Every structure is written in C-alpha cells, then in structure tokens.
Amino acid sequence: MKRILIILGCANDENGRLSETAIERLEEGIREYREHPGSAILPTGGFGAHFNTTDRPHAEYARDYLLERGIPEADILSPVITGNTVEDAVMSKTILDGEPGAAITIVTSDYHIERARFVFSRILAGRNISYRPARTDLPAERLEALRAHETRAVAEMARKGIRYGKERAKDR
C-alpha cells in the first residue's frame, strides 16, 4: 500500500531560513520516510504575516530542505500552498483523492497534533490516517502558551465546525 507523508508547514524568516520548529517537523518526516521506503512526501505551507513574508511559499523551502537531506525528488509531491491547518487538509484532499487506497501520515509538532487530528479526521473522513508528532524544543513557558492556544482553537472548531471556502465540514 502506498503511504503519503504530509508534513505540515511552519514558520521561516524573511530570508527563507526555516524555524527550528519547521526543521523539527521536517526531520520527523524524514525519519518516517526512512522507516517506510517508497513513501511520498507532501510538504505544505504558503504565506502569512506570522510565518512567511518572502516571495516564495514556505512549502518550497521545505522541499529544498528535503532535497538537501537526500530525499529523492521523485518522492516529493508538488507542494500545497496553504495558510493554515484547515487549508492543509482541504488542499491535500484534492491530491489524496487521486490515491484512494493510500495510507496517510500527518507529521506536525507535538503541541499541534490534536488540532491536526481534529481537522484531518473530519476533512479526510474514512481515510487511513496516522499522526506522527515532532518533539518541540522550546522554553517551557512558550510551549505551554502554544498548547493553550491549540486547546482553544480545537474547542472553537468543535463549537463552530470547520469552515473553509464555501463549504463547511461539521463535527461528526
């Protein structure tokens, strides 16, 4: 069975240098890739005031990083240019619909895994999805603030549903 690893984007600086958190996600994705030879990698990430203000989408920087680490170009799918986790799932779904039997592994930060699970399990309902958290190495107070933010975000989505485009995926 084919496996597709979706590595969720994160921040880079104004010069395109990946943040430590983005690198942690990519390195975890590389470990997963090496454990499952023949997998394809789908990097995500676009533009945003808080994570990428360059003229290239974040996913292209992620792709470059993967290539520099020896991942064959043939195993890296065309990146999806997104601005948040919901867009990651929606845009990935378009690609994944062409691979109906593929196993899917979502790679993201440990503090972000519950939101990713909430979003992807609804937008890709019925698909074989696993989640691989990348350990985040941040000061305890910063990590706790991120976890609190994620808890609030999931609670808000649970209350309102997941909104994207003209459609809405309701909590099932």
CATH domain fold name: Rossmann fold
Distance between the termini: 28 Å
The low-pLDDT segments are: 166-172
The total number of structural domains is 1
- What's the Cα radius of gyration? 15 Å
Shape: globular
Name of the CATH architecture: 3-Layer(aba) Sandwich
State which percent range the strand residues make up: 15-25%
- Level of helix content? 40-55%
Question: Structural class per helix/strand content?
Answer: alpha/beta
What are its keywords?
5 helices; disordered C terminus; Rossmann fold; 172 residues
In brief:
This protein is of the alpha/beta class and 172 residues long. It has one domain: 3-Layer(aba) Sandwich (Rossmann fold), CATH 3.40.50. The protein is built from five helices and six strands; from the N terminus they run E-H-E-H-H-E-H-E-H-E-E.
List the helices and strands and how they pair.
Layout: E1 3-7, H1 20-35, E2 40-43, H2 58-68, H3 85-96, E3 103-109, H4 113-123, E4 129-134, H5 140-160, E5 162-164, E6 167-169
Parallel strand pairs: 1-2, 1-3, 3-4
Antiparallel strand pairs: 5-6
